User: Which sequence fits this backbone?
């Protein structure tokens, strides 16, 4: 209703005295469409403008009787899943048919090559530097043994680490059983290159990606890893 009233005011005829004196005022009726008049008016007023500027002005003028239409915003397409959606879709769950120890022996062999290239152990290697590297090493594929645990049934458990989470290791054993072993209050043993590393789970409760970027200060007051 308000818009119609504004349009009526906009297009009201000129006052009577203006109509009577239009010749003196130099007014005349439009003999062309409104948009053509605007273009010719711009040509007269912006003679010193560059051609590109003239083109831009002609393209962007706005007639008063055409309401401004805002372009609809298009929602961005979601490309990633959040943690709740991943959990609902069971992204990280290992299906029963894939819980077979022989399937992951090649993964363990790759890990052995990876840790060999990472540590580059020699008879003169500095144990402190080896500890720093081992603290940041990726353990997916490592063959570990649970040395100590608050739960006695976990002690002596040996298997390949398939998944490392913030608080647990998921280990596949030789009898094709997938075990979830908590890091807290547990000590794990890893053997490689003639060395045995002991991992103290209480001070290892980090996601692998964060652990790789964390700066550890050695020697540490709390036991984290022994070689």
Assistant:
């Amino acid at each position: 209703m308000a818009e119609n009233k504004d349009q009526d005011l906009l297009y009201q005829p000129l006052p009577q005295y203006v109509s009577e004196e239009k010749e003196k005022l130099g007014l005349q009726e439009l003999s062309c469409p409104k948009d053509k008049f605007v273009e010719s008016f711009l040509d007269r007023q912006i003679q010193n403008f560059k051609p590109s500027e003239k083109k831009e002005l002609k393209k962007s003028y706005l007639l008063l009787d055409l309401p401004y239409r805002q372009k609809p915003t298009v929602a961005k397409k979601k490309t990633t899943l959040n943690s709740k959606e991943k959990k609902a879709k069971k992204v990280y769950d290992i299906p029963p048919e894939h819980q077979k120890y022989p399937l992951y022996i090649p993964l363990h062999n790759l890990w052995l090559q990876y840790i060999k290239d990472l540590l580059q152990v020699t008879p003169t290697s500095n144990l402190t530097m080896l500890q720093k590297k081992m603290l940041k090493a990726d353990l997916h594929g490592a063959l570990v043994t649970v040395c100590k645990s608050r739960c006695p049934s976990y002690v002596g458990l040996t298997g390949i680490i398939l998944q490392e989470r913030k608080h647990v290791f998921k280990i596949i054993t030789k009898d094709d059983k997938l075990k979830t072993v908590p890091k807290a209050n547990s000590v794990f043993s890893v053997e490689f290159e003639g060395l045995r590393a002991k991992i103290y789970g209480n001070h290892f409760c980090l996601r692998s990606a964060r652990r790789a970027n964390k700066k550890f200060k050695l020697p540490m007051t709390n036991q984290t890893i022994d070689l």
Notes: The chain has a mean pLDDT of 79. The radius of gyration is 38 Å. The longest strand covers residues 158-164.
